Amino acid sequence: MWDLTEKKWGWTENQIGFNSEEVILTSPDPIRGLDEPSRKTIGNQKYRFDGRKERERFKLCWSARSIVYPELVMKQRPNAQYEPVQLLSFLTYAALTNDFVNDAAENYPLPEDEAPHPNTVFYRTKKLSVAEVLDQFNSAMERIIEVACQRGALEGKLDLAIDLTDWRYYGDKNDPMVLRVKPKDGTTKAFVLATVYVIVDGERFTLRAIPVSSLSNKEEIIEELLDYAEKMVDIGTLYVDREFFTVDCIKVLKQKNIKFLMPATKNDRVKREMEEGHPRVVDFEYGVKRKHPVNFNLGIVENDTGDVKTFATNHDVGKEDLEKLFDMYSQRWGIETSYRVKHQFRAKTRTKYYEPRIFLFLFSVCLYNLWVLINFQVTKKFGEDSKIYMTAKTFTDRMVKVLPEPEPPPIDPN
């Protein structure tokens, strides 16, 4: 087992909550996490871990770093001043402060001569190709998913969602991977990722994220995401944004025999069906001018505010079930704070280079997934009202401050 001493790690008695001159902590196995015993006997003294909030958080954050950080290896020379884990800790701090990477360096809690320079972060990430960035983060995400499966977080039939996430951009519209999007926050330009989520403990847990370019086809995006998701989980119902309401996308879903639910775009034919009254379920043929149209159930229902909504599904549903089905979509996937919370894990940058941007984007997804997984473990072991539960800010704060050393302590030969 690893052992940490107060002298080596610079912890004070107030920080660790013990009243001894020197305290030995036993680190959890990187995979076991909360499965560590709740009691330890060190010398003649027994220490309880269950009631010590900060100790459990320490163990969890150590495990979290051990899952992801080894998978993210930035290109560097043998004599490089900073190890990747030091740079990743710095980026976690930038995410914690939700600040620009350059500005976060001024407040990073290390002496100026020890803190990584922001240019080092950009230089290292810019040397990676987009394919290399994606390979590293796919590997990191798979490790998180592997641990999530071991913890029972992805058991049984699970509902999924696919949607598009954008990162607004204020640079040149001709820069690589920049897409034109709906006006928001003073710009119509953004970098876009397509993501597939599963709900874990009420939060969106990302299984895979892929970048979207001007050459991307929506049906290819949805097929790639689902090919991966089918390997990882048993899919219940797939909830899809209206951007994917196309003949080709629906064909993919029907070919895969996946139950789906999505808002239907109100084209002229859909509007005519709406005028016939509601609630109703219509066997709707979509793409009638094409050689091979698709059929699905078109649900027409009025929401609580009196607006008539339409959605497409291949569920066998009667009009008496429409309100329930629509409420399931709107409440579970629409009224959510996941996007707002996820932004708390993303460092800001002004760089126009795509490689550092996609690196920061995917790093924020990994941090978010770890936060969801850790709190799932806490709820499973200590209950929903446990004081060990961490907010997004507390989690990123502990990821930076609780583990001040970049490398694990030496293994105790005894």
From TrEMBL:
Domain of life: Archaea
Keywords: Membrane, Transmembrane, Transmembrane helix
One BP term from GO: DNA transposition
Pfam families listed in its UniProt record: DDE_Tnp_1
Record has Transmembrane as a keyword: yes
Residue ranges annotated for the Transposase IS4-like domain, each copy included: 159-369
Keyword Chloroplast applies: no
Transmembrane domains' residue ranges: 358-378
Any GO molecular function: transposase activity
Protein name according to UniProt: Transposase IS4-like domain-containing protein
The organism of origin for this protein: candidate division MSBL1 archaeon SCGC-AAA259B11
